[in-house]
Design goal:
The complex is a heterodimer of chains A (513) and B (290). Chain A has 513 residues and is an alpha+beta fold. Helix content of chain A is 41%, strand content 18%. Chain A has 18 helices and 15 strands. The mean pLDDT of chain B is 91. At the A-B interface, strand 1 and strand 8 of A face strand 3 and helix 1 of B.
């Protein structure tokens, strides 16, 4: 072990020159090397992935990460089982996207397909919120909350429980296949697949009634589509969290590539305090710390890294900002009797000041970009809230008949036809009052609704609960009263009992003048 | 391709050999998993070639061992649709026309189905949505009916057609050509002025009184004393604002002198009885049904 370390030490000049000199892959026992160093392309067609074997680590950051992981997984698996009473004809699942009935439910909110802009709003909020948090605290999303990180962490925990920690796993990888190895491998993949199945299954529960789905799934009565999607999400979970892992972040995910746009010198990042750590080198107990840095080049930070990089190389795309290297380094610093936080969460501005011996600059939380992101966030949130609070429980859509555009009647009147749809978004049958006005009150006009008796200036129209009612409406006006080929007409639908009132603007067409 | 493979000093990775302003691009190899995905798609395509129709061979093609065909799929879907429609079609077959109109479900089905058949069979002459066409193809969306606008009358007109020789029950009427010696050109002009005056459209300076006498003798038998027409004889109402062959004086004169007569096929033998009923309900619902 020590020999290997010394060998590496002597052979490795300053980075990045060592990349060319290092024989691949030099991962021997404790001395961890980031895969970027170890990877050396020897084939022109493809590059082998250097497998990352993250070591277990303990510390406050790891504890926070476990806590976040537990809470997020609990939310994911429990949410579909929360019930919410909406009356006899509606599903009682609190969170449900009902594709076949074209409704989305979120506790007390019910969304119709044409209100999908709420979903757009949520996505915008999610994006801007992410920008906001990222510009302040760096890659908190990547390191703690991203599903890829959460499930990979869970899968790694299973792997560690079954196959042992980093060194044991690396030895196991090198071993020839044996009964013991096979048993460990089968156990690991079995548990992975089980978790993946639960994950894929839980995803479907957001689109189907959860208890019904479970009963149907295990009795073979679910639709082939259901089985397909459960299988699909099981497979993606298993592959992405079990096999692809950090490659998802490095190769597939666009977020690491453009999040740099949200970063500035006051953004919190996981950083190696180069000014304190360099020059690094091995340290024997009792040796002086004079003239050298605090980094003892133990590679603990590399060994625990879930994406297998060396944080001492500086900021890099692959770093997901989880901070596990901080826990690992603090542990080592404590053992060798040096101050903690050689690797730490800090801003670039602060690090630059420390490096040059300037006084510590104040951490500017309020910056142009954070103000901008915050305003955008609260603006969109407020707009969504206002539209939700003021939204009517009824909507109307009017389609002017185009064939024919208008009809000349026997007494010379001009008649236009309209297809009117009334959307009753409540859970009870309702009746509405439909009125119209052509061009600020054209006189001597009348309305007729197909299949509805007794209409004239206004009509009383009904719509069943939670459904769309369609009516054919004819409006007529004397030809001589029309002073243009096209006049505006406004249909107004009111429900006095609830105070709902919606208007739709259309046109009334006549012959060219 | 450069003949000599050049390696980047810093990383040891090959370069592409191109240089832009002193900057060279690394020829970074693809990740292995990516290459495997590429191979997997090739394997997938082979399976697809074997299972599904794939290679065109002139007038035929490889069928694939699953025997899948989009035509069969369409036929299956059509059969399923017909199965689902059967219930409604039975309802329409067994109900009278007023019963269909009063039953909201049957009415919706008849109206929407009728719209489709109308577009296929009727719209060529009567226009989309029954908007009519100039030159004797009546507007069906207005409230003027030559042969009657209630459900029964519309049903009879569609079934037997108008002036359709092959159908003994067809609607038939013939207006004499008054230009063939029955009336002089001057008299025809006077009648035309009178007819136009019935809807308040007489040309300035015209004296309808002269034409009124001729009208009472020659025209009132079919068009009625007041010119309001008679649906049983297919004689149009002359007092309204609707003119099948045009409302100008010259149009009216031409029609009296040598009348045009429209022809419509009988549909009883061309379309199923349910379809004719659906068309009746649809046409009746266009806005002018009586």
């Amino acid at each position: 072990m020590a020999e290997a370390a010394r060998k590496l030490d002597t052979e490795l000049p300053e980075p990045p020159g060592r990349l060319t000199d290092l024989a691949a892959p030099a991962v021997e026992d404790e001395q961890a090397v980031s895969w970027k160093e170890a990877q050396r392309p020897d084939s022109p067609l493809y590059a082998n992935r250097i497998k990352v074997h993250p070591r277990d680590v303990r510390g406050p950051i790891r504890r926070i990460k476990w806590l976040v992981l537990g809470v997020l997984l609990a939310i994911y698996y429990v949410t579909p089982w929360i019930r919410w009473d909406r009356g006899p004809d509606a599903p009682d699942q609190a969170v449900l996207i009902d594709m076949t009935a074209r409704r989305a439910y979120f506790f007390f909110i019910e969304i119709w397909p044409q209100e999908v802009y709420y979903l757009t709003g949520l996505l915008v909020l999610g994006a801007v919120g992410l920008f906001f948090v990222t510009s302040l605290f760096g890659r908190l999303w990547c390191g703690y909350a991203c599903p890829q990180t959460v499930w990979t962490d869970l899968f790694m925990w299973v792997e560690r429980k079954v196959e042992g920690d980093r060194n044991a796993r690396m030895r196991l990888d090198k071993q020839a296949m044996s009964g013991a190895k096979l048993r460990k491998r089968l156990t690991k993949h079995g548990i992975w697949l089980l978790i993946a199945l639960l994950t894929g299954g839980a995803w479907i529960m957001y689109f189907q009634d959860a208890p019904t789905f479970v009963a149907e799934f295990f009795t073979g009565q679910a639709s082939s589509g259901t089985y397909f999607f459960v299988g699909l999400f099981t497979a993606t979970t298993y592959l992405l969290a079990g096999w692809a892992r950090e490659q998802v972040c490095t190769y597939m995910c666009p977020w690491p590539r453009f999040q740099a746009a949200m970063f500035d010198e006051d953004t919190l990042v996981v950083t190696y305090q180069r000014w304190r750590g360099e020059p690094r080198g091995k340290h024997k107990k009792g040796e002086s710390w004079e003239g050298r840095g605090d980094c003892i080049d133990c590679s603990a930070c590399v060994a625990v890294c879930p994406t297998g990089i060396d944080i001492r190389d500086g900021q890099q795309l692959e770093c997901i900002g989880c901070g596990l290297c901080i826990d690992a380094c603090n542990d080592v610093m404590q053992k060798v009797g040096r101050p903690k936080e050689l690797i730490t969460f800090d801003t670039e501005a602060n690090q630059a000041a420390l490096e040059e011996g300037r006084p510590k600059p104040t951490w500017k939380l309020i910056r142009l970009r954070t103000i901008f992101y915050a305003m955008l966030f609260f603006g969109v949130a407020a707009a969504m809230l206002v539209t939700y609070v003021t939204r009517a429980s009824v909507d109307i859509s009017v389609l002017h008949d185009r064939a024919p555009l208008f009809v000349t009647l026997s007494d010379g009147d001009i008649r236009n036809g309209y297809t009117i749809k009334i959307l009753n978004m409540t859970r009870e049958p309702r009746s509405f009052r439909l009125a119209y006005e052509i061009d600020d009150g054209l006189p001597s006009t009348s309305m007729e609704v197909l299949g509805v008796e007794g209409t004239g200036e206004v009509a009383t129209l009904t719509a069943e609960s939670d459904s769309v009612a369609t009516y054919q409406v004819y409006v007529r006006a004397p030809a001589e009263a029309l002073d243009a080929a096209s006049l505006p007409i406004a249909f107004t639908l009111t429900d006095p009992s609830r105070g709902d009132r919606v208007t739709y603007d259309s046109v009334f067409r006549g012959p060219e003048k | 391709m450069p003949t000599k493979v050049e390696k980047d000093q810093l990383t040891g990775t090959e370069t592409t050999g191109h240089e832009w302003d002193g900057i060279k691009e690394l020829n970074t190899p693809l990740p292995k998993w990516w290459v495997y995905v590429f191979y997997a798609t090739i394997v997938w395509s082979l399976g697809y070639f074997v299972l599904y129709p794939a290679i065109p061979l002139g007038s035929t093609y490889t069928k694939g061992i699953l025997g899948w065909s989009s035509r069969e799929q369409v036929e299956e879907q059509l059969a399923r649709a017909e199965e689902r429609q059967a219930e409604f079609l039975n309802g329409i077959r067994e109900s009278s026309l007023p019963e269909i109109v009063d039953d909201p479900t049957l009415f919706q089905f008849a109206r929407q189905g009728g719209a489709v058949y109308f577009a296929d069979n009727c719209a060529a002459c009567h226009g989309a949505g029954g908007m009519g066409n100039p030159g004797g193809f009546p507007v069906l969306a207005d409230d003027a009916w030559i042969w009657g606008g209630d459900l029964e009358a519309i049903h009879a007109t569609i079934r037997h057609g108008v002036r359709w020789d092959d159908d003994p029950d067809t609607r038939f009427s013939m207006m004499p050509a008054y230009g063939d010696g029955l009336l002089t050109a001057e008299e025809i002009g006077q009648v035309a002025d009178y007819v136009l005056s019935l809807s308040g459209a007489a040309p300035e300076g015209a004296d309808p009184a002269a034409g009124a006498e001729i009208f009472a003798v020659q025209c009132a038998a079919c068009h009625g004393e007041n010119g309001t027409g008679l649906a049983d004889l297919g004689a149009p109402n002359l007092t309204d604002a609707i003119w099948l062959y045009g409302g100008e004086r010259s149009d009216v004169v031409a029609q009296i002198t040598n009348p045009q007569h429209g022809v419509m096929p009988s549909w009883a033998n061309r379309l199923d009885s349910e379809v004719v009923k659906m068309l009746t309900v649809y046409v009746h619902s266009l806005g002018g049904g009586q």
